[in-house]
Write a structure and sequence with these properties.
The chain is mainly α. Strands 1-2-3 form a three-stranded mixed β-sheet. It starts with a helix and ends with a helix. The relative contact order is 0.14.
């Protein structure tokens, strides 16, 4: 198992590509978050204006206190929801980037990570690396599908006779960083859970 994980580990050049692609995606996400944050803040201001209008109508006796209370409660609830969304959008993307930077070195040495974990951690790591069952046939390990991001490294293990994929993925021609069924982010997320 250790040898397989060592062979499946990413090289430094692969990790550089992964890191820069992930950084691009996080930067793009940050821009989208800022735009959404601005839109939500505008919605809050609009609701505050509506609350003031309802209060003014009450003061001018244009509406009944019951109507005021109904609209005030609706608008306050909407404002509260928006504040919660703003809080979520305001969470620091830098924290996500630092978590990514923390996980990346482990992708370079899956063997060391595996050996440092307890039984539950080892199982979680293997579930992340091998998308389906991992079967030992006495001399060789078999799996229907390793993580798509690791397919290029799987070829090394196959050459050495360490791991055999019984049903090769039909997505071998796709980029493992962008594969819909197994993004590199999913693998990184599994590693972050273990840390």
């Amino acid at each position: 198992m250790s040898e397989i994980l060592e062979e499946l580990s990413f090289s430094n050049s692969q990790l550089n590509v992964i890191y820069y692609k992930a950084k691009e995606k996080l930067d793009e996400a940050m821009k989208n978050r800022k735009a959404m944050l601005i839109a939500k803040q505008k919605e809050v201001k609009d609701i505050e204006v509506k609350i003031e209008e309802v209060e003014e109508r009450l003061m001018n006796k244009e509406i009944e206190p019951a109507t005021y209370k109904k609209w005030y409660n609706k608008l306050s609830a909407a404002k509260s929801v928006l504040f919660h969304e703003i809080e979520k959008l305001s969470s620091h993307i830098n924290e996500k980037m630092s978590r990514l930077e923390k996980a990346i070195p482990y992708l370079c040495n899956l063997k060391t990570l595996y050996e440092s974990l307890g039984l539950m951690g080892k199982q979680k790591l293997l579930n992340g690396v091998f998308k389906a069952n991992l079967i030992f046939t006495g001399e060789q390990l078999r799996t229907p599908l390793p993580h798509p991001a690791l397919m290029c490294n799987y070829l090394k293990t196959n050459k050495k006779g360490l791991l055999f994929v019984e049903q090769p993925s039909s997505n071998l021609g796709e980029s493992p960083i962008r594969s819909e069924i197994g993004t590199i982010t999913y693998l990184i997320a599994n590693i972050l859970i273990l840390l």
